[in-house]
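RETRY 2/3 - previous attempt timed out on the joint model. Re-submitting the same 811-residue input unchanged.
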Amino acid sequence: MGQVRWAGWTMAIATALVISGAQARADVASDRPAAIVVYPKIVVDTTNGVDTVIRLTNTNLNNLIDVHCFFIDANSHCTSDGSICKDATSCSSGGQCLPSCVETDFDIVLTQGQPIEWKASDGLANSDLPLPYGICTGNQFIRCGSSDQCALFNAGTCTQSNVGTRIPPVSEDPFVGELKCIATGADHVPVARNDLKGEAILESSTETELDVASYNAIGIQATAAAGTPITDNPLVLGPGSEGNYNGCPNVLILDNFFDLATDPISGDTITTDLTLVACSEDLLRQVAGSATVQYLVYNEFEQRLSTSRTVNCFQEIQLCNIDTTQCPRSIFAAGLQGTLTGQTRINPVVNPAAALPSGLLGIAIERHGAETSSAAFNLHFAGARGTADTITLP
Amino acid sequence: MLRQRGLVGLIGLAALVGWGLVAQPAVAQVTRKTVVTTEQSASILVFPKVIADGSRDTIIQITNTSNNMQHAHCLYVNGAPTTPGLPPGSLNPPLCTEIDFDIWLTRQQPTHWVVSTGRLYNPGDSSCTASTKCCALTGGSCPGDTDVSGSDDADCCDAGFDPGHVPPVAPDFTGELKCILVDSSGAPYSGNSLKGEATLEDIATGDVSKYNAIGIQGNDNQNGDDVLCLGSSTAGNDLCPTGSEYAGCPVEWRLDHPATGAPDPVVEQQPFCASSPCSGVSTNLTIVPCTENFETQALTAITLQFLVINEFEQSFTTSTSFACWGSFDLGAPSGSPLPGISDWFTASALGSETLQTRIRSAAGTPGGVLAVIEETHQDTINSLTARSAQNGHMIGELNVMDLVTIPIGQGNDATPQ
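RETRY 2/3 succeeded.
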């Protein structure tokens, strides 16, 4: 009888927790400064005038901040010759086109309140840095990187500067992938400082076309008191606000025009590209986060259709290619849905077979017309994942 | 048997506690965390920048993210200058007239409309097919076989459950759209189930830019009256007897943007750019007050304080004021169509190409503000222009109460239709 009573209490509490838990919320946000900023889509193709301008700002007006960043190269490559490919048809000699997820990391030092920007194709280093060196306060003719150098000349302390910063260009051209930046201390240990914000401006410039689309980097806030070193490796995101950082959202919500819808103003055809990146990443062992994504698609008649597809590391895909290669037959096609707009709820489901199950973050890019005019925007979030995500640093 | 009944009751109680349907002594002390946000569902949606002036038009998208039917009371605020054609300013203030309408959305329903044309209530609209095309009359004349947005022949353009009758805006409209979640009686409530986006479209070039509506989440203090109380204070007063009903507006906005006149680094690296500069970038700031009295239409001047920080750690300050709706081309010279506020936003004055700008309403100013920015990139060699809108970053929550007053007859005392 005692066991029955315990079972009853256990069930009752479990039920309450489960139902309450459904109302928990994530504080991953693209409209507030954070300790980790994620740029889901960085794209470079200089041959065709495509590049990304990356902005990163230290919003703290009192202290400089060290930042450790990772470019994740998500290009696919041919097994035959290693060239960059989109699918097997672009590989010679019958090679396969395999996706990759390779990281390159670097450091940035931002002085108090400092905004910087750079082109992904070029990077930023040396004299191109806004403050490439400091000056000794006791003798402005002495350049310095640290106060120790000033001390040699009894010349006071060294002013803040970007010394220590060398931002490389992306590893390939063309390039598509992600950028992730983590606030750290001078010792490269991650630190709970929610002081970073960023934006990415995706540009295409030719003699006949200029297209600009921008989105806010997605911020993941640290949960510990400001300035607390985070010595754990891997970094733990969630669940909810229980980890080193807030957890990734349970559902991403996209309001979209259905693909092949006509723009009700211009009459142009509209398509939408969805970019999703994994919250979990093992950058040490190069293990990509993975999720099976359930898509619930609602049209303006309240009718619901659904599909699913797996995401590994990074996925950039036109909506109508999620479920088929024949766009007019897609559940994301306006002709099939019968209305111009829809709501797509994107729910990453843990795949037990995955090496590194993961939540997702993402952005969308809406394209109007053949002469591309595009607009990028951030997805909405709902709920908190029940399991933690992890980022393992090299 | 008694024990079993008790067990069932316990499980049921636990479920109800989880749903928040019964008193929760331990949980009741925890106030629901609410925020002003651009990426979570909310109870008030604010679209600060809505344009339908003949050169640009706007598509509004609003979605019900809940599994219940939702109603919203929406208000357009016309921020166009009183005397069209003259620069806005203290001698040519914005009209600040409002028109309102109601929409309702079934569970999870998305909807949309074109601002210049609105959307008729017409259940007979045919669904889209692979061959149907849409067109808005703002773009000129539509081909004969094309569905026309907002008209009796809208069909595919307006297919779906109509959200109600959305009126077109006045000609040369530049202003704000605000939608407030209400119940079926018209009383405001805190369901936090609306999200929205605005797509600004250049009619001549087809260039588009898009931003998320700013959402203001409601809390459990909602009393359903016509005065909406936004703030962090739980203390009641005459207008807000239950304290704040919605999240408070941010203390500060933080915007990263290019200095006006700075070159576009991507255009500059193109082969056609033989000698710099071949390009220029500028930033437009659109800002609306959190406090709005739609009953009295009383304009309240708000002073904005700007702190501008360049790449060299140098900071500069400036200020301006606006009422009802403000749109500024940051750093634009005097005589420009829109005010420029100050030279401190220009690359030539700052010697820097990237800025962090912090905006707050000045001390003594009644309430906070909401903002969105839009960058304009120009390729001066090929005479090409592209825009991109961005949501700003927000810091803190004002502890003063902002009030949004719904006119008598539009809220919970609305006459049944």
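The radius of gyration of chain A is 23 Å. Closing ticket.
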